[in-house]
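Figure-free illustration: sequence to structure, shown twice.
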Amino acid sequence: MSVSVVPTRAKIVIIGGGVGGTSVAYHLAELGEKDVILLDRNELTSGSTFHSAGLVGQLRADPTLTLMNMHSVDLYRKLQTTDTPPSWRECGSIKLASTPERMQEIRRQIGWAKTFGLDLKEISPQEAQNLFPLIDLDGVVGACYMASDGQVDPSQLAMALAAGARKNGVQIFTHTRVLEIKTINGRVSSVVTDKGEIECEIVVNCGGMYAPQIGRMVDVRIPIVPMSHQYLITDNFMDADAPFLPSLRDPDNLIYFRQEVSGLLMGGYERNSKAWSADYKNIDDIPADFNNTLLPDDWDRFYDIAEASQKRVPKMAEIGIKNFINGPEGFTPDNEFCLGETSVGGFYVAAGFCAHGIAGAGGIGKVVAEWIVAGEPTMDLWHMDIKRFGASYESPDFTLQRITENYEQYYDIHYPGEERTSARPKFTSPVYEWHKAHGAVFGEKASWERVNYYQSNIGNQALRPQGWLGKHWSSAVQVEHHSTRTAAGLFDESSFAKARITGSRAGEFLNYVCANNVVKGVGKTVYTQALNSKAGIESDYTVTQTDDNEFMIVTGTAFAVHDFGWLEKIRREFNFDNVEITNITRDLTCFGVMGPNSRAILQSLTAADLNHSAFPFMSSQEITLAGIKVRATRITYVGELGWEIYSSVADGLALWEKIMEAGEDLGLTACGYRAIESLRLEKGYRAWAGEINTETNPYEAGLGFAVSLKKEEFHGRTAAVAAKEIQTRKLVAITFDDITSVPFGSEPIRINNEIVGRIKSGGQGYTIGKAIAYAYLPIENSDPGTQVDVELFGTWVSGAIHKEPLFDPNNDRIRA
């Protein structure tokens, strides 16, 4: 409705009336939230929704996104039976393989589709042509078909969702422009519009390509850039009574098709992309009157796409064009959605749909509505969480370079170990130039350059994994792995995210946030998880008490914004006002000295006593090492005796060189992060966003030792107690005798010909000489010795569940 004034108060205000905003409104109403207002600056669907292509595919590389898209299909079926149907048509979809590599990808996707009960099946080229008779089969290797995929009219979908929301009490106001969002004490308090101010508790930014502008009202950076995305619609040419065509994707040729009336809609992802309203020096600045508007045709950039379409569907060279669409679509730096609560309390975002938002809209609305009501995500949404983006994305240059790279690789096959190439280097350790001079091959994590391995360590190639995992594999990793196990490895871990927690209630605060007892006295280090209200693992990290009211937290490189944001949220919502959280990541270097010779190497550089009795496991001391003041923490993530050494950045290079020099005669090898990964998999150390996440609890993950139920209160305690009492599944280690036959995630697991789970992670165990995988399996299927089958690219391979840990089961080495 268009009115001259708006209500003065609502619990929740949604900004944006495309498929995102209307879906969030619809699902909030379904959850019983009636005090909801949706605002749009123009008419509903007037941003990107009205020009979206409308394809709906369900299977994605991310399990959570697949479940979200499956919910979308269920919802669209339901809406089709209402008074405002969205023109949902369950026509199925075909994906062609025009290369052998793409056929491998298809077979892998068919495998993980089995774990969702999806009807994805392999079909021959001829079967594909039978379903889509217009295609030329030249170069087609194979295909897959999903009967339950479909297409929908995006505008009608938004209208159907809006109608359902209104029916359940949501108020919708169009032609209402948001001018300001006010905050009090770090939380949203009201939305100021051109028709009045609305006091509220929660604001949901569903602004699509306008979302960054809305975010700037509360100083929140939302790294979305509108990219020009083009497609065309042909004249009608097919017989009216011809069978309706499934949608068709030919990713090797960068193109997609779907039927539009009796013609075709065809688009693609060109290699010469173009941003709109943003460039490498300036953030987006969309004109205030850009509503229901398209961009000028850009045929020059579309030429290669059009040419590819004519080769796959020769009829495209003969028929006329009814419409040519060039519309801006909001893309993120990794082609994943941008969802969740931001650093401002109560300010949520659901935007950045990257041209697959129509398929995801139903699921997006569901998970965001649940997040709002619960105050935390109800599924593992890390890959879509806005908190995955760090400070680098404040830069328009960095953001656009990343988005351009991802847009142009939209249809590419992405192999394990593949690294981004744009906008590098960004953050480096003080040892970066040393690493380069010594042949380091770098990876990148959260904008940090990190050593993957050193070329100088390359050795025997015999253990190269079969298939995809062998693409970016290096034999240097096994050399560095064995050096750490037999002598010592030196790892530059300066990118670890680090925070200092201070204040008179710092200990009380951390013991509330953390499941473990982390207040054990100055110099004690504790591994812990921070749990959500369902006992899901929101974060895991180490906490070191450095003074009576001071602590240091160390967590993974990529998790600074997420983990420290969770701390800020708990601090704010549970009134720990006098606690201060300071990100000190870039103030300190961190070097890991790990292996049986680590004590001897470090002892040669210090007068401090490093013997076990004087410096026990999980303790931390300030010492002088090679004349440099450092904090040494005895800890390990590789399953060996070792220390993490923290120093000032200024002292970092000198300290590294001194340690390397001291270890020269003791077998010390400079090592990279890929060796850490193989070492920690052997030892069974968990990785957040790998084996553990917000959907897994400590007990099923084998981390119950890090939960202190002796504490009367901590966040998530009630659910943790329940999780301990009732366990339905368990994280298990699976080993495979052929070390070159390696699962790496999402592969289906079969026991007695029944699918019982999917792989969470995997790799090579160079010490035990086996391939390793981890997976959650039902308790009744989790006994050591149980034989399992895992599908690798269409072939079932046999493995066995093995008792953990696979290496050094008595922890003799780490406590030496």
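We now fold a second protein in the same way, so the two outputs can be compared directly.
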Amino acid sequence: MCVVIFAICVAAKVGHVQFVEGEKWSKLGEDLTFDYKTVKATRGNIFSDNGSLLATSLPFYKVAMDPTMINEDIFNKGLDSLSIKLSKFYKDKSKEDYRRMLKDARESGKQYLIINRKQINYQSKKEMESWPIFREGRYKGGVIFEKMDVRYRPFSNLSRRTIGFVNENGNGAGLEYSFNSALGGQNGEALFQKIAGGAWKPIFDGNNKKAVDGLDIQTTLDINLQDVAETSLFKAMREHEADEGTVVVMEVKTGEIKAISNLSREGDQYYEKYNHAVGGLFEPGSTFKLVTMMALLEETNIELTDSINTGNGEFTFYKHKVRDHHEGGFGRISVQQAFELSSNVAMAKLTDKHFGLKPKNFIDYLDKLKLSKPLGLQISGELFPKITRPEDKDWSGITLPWMAYGYGFEISPLHTLTLFNAIANEGEMIKPILVKSVRLADETIQEFETETLNSSVCSDKTLAKLKILLEGVVENGTAKNLKNSYYRIAGKTGTAQILEKGKYTKKYITSFVGYFPAHAPKYSAIVLIKNPKGWQQTGNSVAGPVFKDIADNIYSRDLELHTPMVEKEVLEAGVFPTIRAGNQEELTMLCNELGISNHTNTDEEWIKAARNGNSVTWKKNAIVKDRVPDVTGMTFRDAIYLLEKSGLRVIHEGKGRVTDQSLSPGTKFSRGTRIKIVLS
């Protein structure tokens, strides 16, 4: 009796579920087996400055099949041929195994069969689309090509960390991460059905939302220069068995970063692990002496010719000793020599003397020069510089003398480069830039222009002196090994001890930062190499040669930097000792008064003299806008008038007539460019 009652209850419940709650459970079953899933958009490309691909997304495909959709006649006729092709292509199963797999799936009614988990490229997909059965397409042939994009870098590891990445969780680094909103596009939605085994099969539904592909970005990077920079840095780090290294090359006028490389050592291998240029903080060492000299020249009446006694190269400040690298010291030297020879004692004594009672005035220069905050770069990863201030509890009497030569605080390599670039750029400090534009095919969606951080970092007078100092480092100072006869380099060496566990070790950060060619700067660069091994552990011997190697390569490739040697025409002494070049009216009058025969075939105001027997012939001395005039042979008065009228800033040396000029005649220049003339 109990069994009968139980059976009646079961039947009643089944009937209730089937007829009363049927629609509810049918809907729930549909929800469990169908779902809209995200379809990822194709990621945008990253290009170099000339349009070369730095990163792109290549389509790869997973091959699946719904054997139940295939017409029986098509299936039977193509089965053997398809099995043979699959076996030859994947080389993992025999043709019999593939034949059995396809046939069993069809007979069991399996609607989603993964042919092989190995992904294929687009060329292989096109080939497969011509195979038996597959050639019938999605609906008649049952083939399913599930697309998935794989990020590909045509230049392999070139600037790998700067280009960066984005992982599945949306985290990442470099430009890929910083411009993810533009590169990533907008994902779509597609309907999928859950089938046996937990796999999801795409269903082609009218409500599917199509993905919108990402935008492209064009960077400022120069592929050739990037390769040169990385190769030079790698060779130096391997030679010196260094731990870390970074190099950045920037265009002076635009702030465009043309090359950036960051290498770290692990065992015997070097690779891009971290972007030291952007996110690394280091004590700058002697490269910071540029800031010290700027503050001294701006705030005091100090002159480069003034003398400073460095003694035996050791001086005590508040029970702490400051030492020079040169054994025995430099004795009494000029302020200019102190900078060129990188005397720590001189910089510390001068700073303590003039700013010891008003340290805030010195620290204010770090704020003015944008050294105390992140630069606001287009790439993520910047850190706040670590600057000690007078109001901080760890400020002491030795803090300011230490800061004078680059110790006791930390800034990034890009901070230092941005400062030196400002000197090369006639005092205008501009923000470094890595991305020029965001594009959709040939259409520019967003363009990034040069941004000025400080229109004038110092007075013109100070700027001229700072340039003399930086050129002097290479001509007469610690970087004489970088001097060459083709073009001039201006810059500063740096060698800073590494602080570990609160104590300075015998490990060093070596650096060189500067610009070239010095007379008309086009590029600035910084090289920083950490903890080199061996007896060479200074900025000039480790980092300096890398700078010169890169500069030499640029000079050999960039013909705009080449100014032809000017053939100097010198009149014989004796007959025409004073008539060489100048204003035509004045020179004609002078010749007439001296009774010298002179002739002209030009109406130009400015002329040059050429000897013709015992007479003078006036030759045209063309003055072209934005081109350096030829003032050799002119008096100082004529030369200064003509050069300044053209928009050049003039520094002179000697007396008499111009015998040499630092900028070759005819060279293109921008207003405010400095030129040095030598008179005798």
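Summary for the second example: Residues 91 and 285 are 61 Å apart (CA to CA).
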